[in-house]
């Protein structure tokens, strides 16, 4: 919910009271610890502790008519702001001319300096007011009553005498069968105790029941779909434990039995009608079962709150000797895991100092003993700092918007295994306020003061998280022996008791993601121009796995194959103990896969995140692997390894990773290093983008026998991947035995290719070839300056193919003596700029004659210098050449004889050059600044003279001149700079978006979105202000494309300004080092200035006030603040785009969730049912049909069976052929333009050499020109065989009075009630006209709705 867009329905008194309570209610932990009647410490409010003991159900229901806690008085604002103007009467009225107090001046300065304006502060306050959940308030009265009922039910349970393991299991099955009808197994951790184990399990009522955590402290927030947790700690009596129960899982066995009995007892109470109960695990740790209680839907005042009550067993801090639980100690003996070692002897007498430490095991025990210690410390902090609770709430909201755990992907629920939680971040905030650095120097700028506001503390905490590495610089409260923690943990953050590492079990990728998110938020908080509140607190896309990572893999494996057997040699025993450390076999496999891939891909990936799914049955488990790629390293063709002589251990590891892929090579700097080569120079961008998926597929198959479906490895990878596998990998069996991998990013990229430029041909036709050919042409034309009247300043390219933005790279036409040919020859446009001259005529017709003479002179000189090239001068609209007499004689005379307002001169002339050396065709036109000045001046003169129609025509001509000669070259430079220098993934992202738009028949100036506007939409996800930029900058085309769809599906075009800031370069590849945007403690973001942004926002706001902003796609830039360059998309098409984008995102999510590409063709297939008529074209005469996606892109492969997207059967899997390197074309051969795989197609109209000749597009243009008022026409400009149309309901189907000015094909309509003759649109005759107009092109005309 957007706080800034929502008007609060509360009264002012209610909002202020709720906000005041969020900062005023504090717990009383000392009372909770010392009281003998086990009273809960959920709140300091007397209303909770001294309430009447009437019927609990009635108390839970509450009363809507109760008075507010503030006794009807207007409370003082909780944030210290002034109350002037809120109450204009009474004794406290302040004079309007009174001087401002110091507090008021400080509040105003704080708003200006900290929040960059009033809006952010208001949004933040409203967000906290709407999401904060405060104990003891009216809204939580039912929850407080339910907590008391849970406490009473727990304390009323009967004691259970101690018994052995077998008897305990039998007892739990018996009582659970009687209570629920199902037999419950005790949730013992792995390894489970044997029936003859010498341990006694029992149950006694708890010695204390306390509510701890964020809820009683006033920090709870209910801002996510998962709600919030209310933690109730049940302290187990010390009599149940013995002094050495911390050894060999004894404590956890007793804890599991206690939870089982507790669960059954709660099921037997009246609470079973109020809550749905189940046993869950903290962080997925099987050693820490708890009882989770979720309110049932029909329960009043509970279901709306959306909370989960968690009953957590605990022990007193003196129940077990905590000093023995130091991180370097071992408390799981091998004799417990396996009764005998390999030699048959028990190792109980082994020296424990020689056994591997069990830090995670020890931390799990410590965590149960320190609940109240942490609660007391946080309570003291809230007492010391009034704004601490609000700052912690902001941190929890911020983290909750970015936490993936607990989210749903299809039918899979991601397990909550992350160790960085809201509690940990709250302790970080407390440490910044009260702690001291141990082991590293505290940087003064992060020090917090108790007098700081919540926003100041939140901002400082985020900046600290953005720069601090807990592994390199461990921190802790007070004096801590950091060496013992650093030796046994990666990241270290020691709690106030100096015994527990709060980051125990946190994986490296989790902390890296946190640091990257904090870095982006720090930039947003300090942005000098834009209010980015939505991106910081409200973005709904941050937890979407499909758009969070550059590459997403679905990995389904047999977990049992990853686990080490409990018997065998000492090496296996050490591995087994390491796996048991994680407390869950799934988490152990998660950690192993993440660490393995992170190490192998350290130069290609910034983050390798592995998210397991919860609730998987049996040994099969699904993991979602997300990789945030390094923009440069992920597309590098050569992965450099170590020098074998200098680093033998690293070299051995590198060879183990890559096998025969690792080659010893000598490089230009004379160094000799191992390297894995993944391609040759000149490899296409589509192929380069698949290097990381190829690597992941190669590694998982080689080391874990995981098969990729569909296969993404190249044939040369398949030849060596299974050779000389490591010993550890051989235990996983043959490829495919362990599991299956699905790489969606590899499949999506296939749609950026065309039918004739795919596979090996994609590596032969590249953008670089076209750009190099253009540079060569520019040098050739500049070399002719001596033969031209004016000096050539530059050639400005404007074609998408010369800025890495065309759908496919420009395709050369191989020239021969016959001239060469292709079905469609697309020219590359450029504008020639000459040096200035005062001799250009003021008459438009004469000026165009001079331009034509220039083109003819250039053509003559170029043809003389390059006789092998083809040179022609033509007309933009008709494609006539100079041989047809257009440039001389009748045509020029007709143009000159027209009046000054004649717009026929818009049909500019051009020069076509078919470059012999490269095979590319270039279309050149002349840029004349004087022409623009003449058009502008004459338009003003006609407007002053009172001729508005002619003036408007000239203004239109001037706008068109600006678009061709000024706006397009400038746009070209921006996009080229973005794709070539800053964002390598931008090019392929643009191409995928254009393919998607064209496949849905919405691309093209005639029918939908212009190419330039599509490029701006793609640029939004890299440099724009859209909310999807709150994530890491895309480093792959897949995630860039998905975020483009999110932009189209969710952006509020009518309410929010969408900006592309080409000056902003947000990409930051610091990999843990200080961000380049952080200099001397100041976070800075480059890009447009405050004044520029303010000007854009002002124009947008003014247009909104005048109702000139429709719900249509509108993207502004610093040079185009009014978004006039490329226009806007109509609201109708915008709604269509939004619906199609939302449906496409659902299909992509289904592909990720199911691990199948069956839904992917639907993303690039438009539904035709929504159209009124469909024109099917003759495929044989479509010139651009070879630009359609390759048929293999629509092949779907699921579990080895392949089907084509059109329903036809295909071969099983992809064909793989043996590759011999000596038969591959060398780079020298490729440079000679001998392209063996590039296909040439004859022109279907037997008109060889026709440049830019596409009858289908001309037919569509004619339909728009003739029937544009009555029908909307849609077509895939890249060789689509369908033209779909919608009748305009404002024209078709309505009876109107007859008039000679109707300009439409009409037929008489009968209406007895009308005195005047009526007519209606003659649909049938119009259809016949369309068929006649498209004679020879149309194969079938289908009317779907009359």
Structural summary, described in words:
The protein has 1346 residues and is α+β, with helices and mostly antiparallel strands. It contains 44 helices and 37 strands. The strands form 11 sheets. It has a 7-stranded mixed β-sheet with strand order 8-9-13-14-12-19-18. Strands 3-4-7-6-5 form a 5-stranded mixed β-sheet, sandwiched between helices. The radius of gyration is 36 Å and the shape is globular. The model is unreliable at 1-96, 340-347, 437-444, 877-906, 1067-1076 and 1199-1236 (pLDDT under 50).
Task: Present the secondary structure layout.
Layout: H1 12-24, H2 29-34, H3 46-49, H4 56-61, H5 102-115, H6 118-131, H7 141-155, E1 160-163, H8 165-180, E2 201-203, E3 208-212, H9 214-217, E4 228-235, H10 250-268, E5 275-281, E6 289-295, E7 307-314, H11 334-337, H12 359-369, H13 371-384, H14 388-400, E8 408-409, E9 412-414, H15 422-434, H16 454-467, E10 475-476, H17 482-486, E11 493-494, H18 508-525, H19 533-538, H20 545-548, E12 551-558, H21 559-562, H22 570-581, H23 585-600, E13 605-614, E14 620-629, E15 638-640, H24 648-658, E16 662-666, E17 672-677, H25 685-688, H26 691-704, E18 706-708, H27 715-720, H28 727-730, E19 739-743, H29 744-748, H30 760-764, H31 767-782, E20 792-797, E21 828-834, H32 844-865, E22 870-875, H33 890-897, E23 909-914, E24 921-927, H34 929-944, H35 948-982, H36 986-999, H37 1011-1023, H38 1037-1050, E25 1058-1060, E26 1078-1079, E27 1082-1083, H39 1090-1105, E28 1115-1117, H40 1131-1154, H41 1160-1163, E29 1173-1177, E30 1196-1198, E31 1201-1203, H42 1227-1231, H43 1255-1267, E32 1271-1275, E33 1282-1287, E34 1296-1297, E35 1306-1309, E36 1318-1321, H44 1323-1333, ...
Parallel strand pairs: 4-7, 10-11, 18-19, 21-24, 25-28
Antiparallel strand pairs: 1-2, 3-4, 5-6, 6-7, 8-9, 9-13, 12-14, 12-19, 13-14, 15-17, 16-17, 20-21, 22-23, 23-24, 26-27, 29-33, 29-37, 30-31, 32-33, 34-36, 35-36
Helix pairs in contact: 8-10, 14-15, 14-16, 16-18, 34-35, 35-37, 36-37, 36-38, 37-38, 38-40
